[in-house]
Amino acid sequence: MAGENNHSKAGPSARPLLVLASTSPRRRSLLAEHGYHFEVVAPDGVEEIAPPDLSPGETVLANARAKARAVVRPDATVLGVDTEVFFEGRVLGKPRDMEDAFAMLSRLNGRTHEVYSGCWLVATSDERGFVEVTRVHFHHRSDDALRAYLTRIGPLDKAGAYAAQNDDGEMIARVEGSFTNVIGLPMEALARECAKMTSAE
Fold first, then answer.
1. What sign does the dihedral 14-5-186-178 (CA atoms) show?
2. Active-site residue 100, yes or no?
């Protein structure tokens, strides 16, 4: 796995250097697993927004665009990403503490919610963005099971207070759409958009 400001091994397709404008370890893992040659640069000074007049897709895309544009590099393609959990018209961000995490997970318990990711790519001669949406169906679990799950995953840095990458079927019953999107980066759509940018050069 690539660490911050380190290179991962180049994949078989020898893609151009990618700069990830995010310090998310889950996004680093996904990029490394899919063979991307990349560096990590934190988009310092960028605060995520969630204005009520924007749709979920517009919100995540605006945040992704701001992150990518804060880390523009002439020698690489920069990727900004924002992933949010939406439930009943509201954003469920990262919990403040364990009780907030329990309240958040209790709301999602046995229900269906959406995960939106906005991705924005910036290269020297081109920039483009896209939004991926995945519907996630949860099992219904007891309060004791929810608390045990939260203790196991450490939810305070996770939107929606759950961890798709090591859920192991405890909460997630099924997913409609991209599973990597639920982890934090829709890899299938990213590959398509990166290919479009490369062919346009």
1. positive
2. no
Share of the chain above pLDDT 70, in %: 90
- Is this prediction's pTM over 0.85? yes
Give the Cα separation of 130 and 189 in Å (integer).
8
- Token output for 114: 């959406």
Summarised one tens digit per residue, pLDDT across range 66-119 is: 999 999 888 899 999 999 999 998 888 899 999 999 999 999 999 999 999 999
Residue 44, domain CATH: 3.90.950.10
Task: Find which of 51-55, 70-74, 128-132 is predicted with most confidence, using mean pLDDT.
Answer: 128-132
Q: Is 153 exposed, middle or buried (0-12, 13-18, 19+ CB in 10 A)?
A: buried
Q: What is the pLDDT of residue 9?
A: 38
Please name the residue that has the structure tokens 């046995």.
110
Mean pLDDT, the chain, whole residue set: 89
Range of the domain at 64: 18-200
Report yes or no on 11 lying in a domain: no
Please state the domain count of the chain: 1
Eight-state DSSP code of residue 52: T
Q: Left, alpha or beta for 24 (phi > 0: left; psi -120 to 50: alpha)?
A: beta
Tokens of 97: 């503490």
Catalytic member of 82, 126, 167, 168: 82
| Residue 5 counted as domain residue | no
Task: Report yes or no on 12 lying in a domain.
Answer: no
Residue 26 counted as domain residue: yes
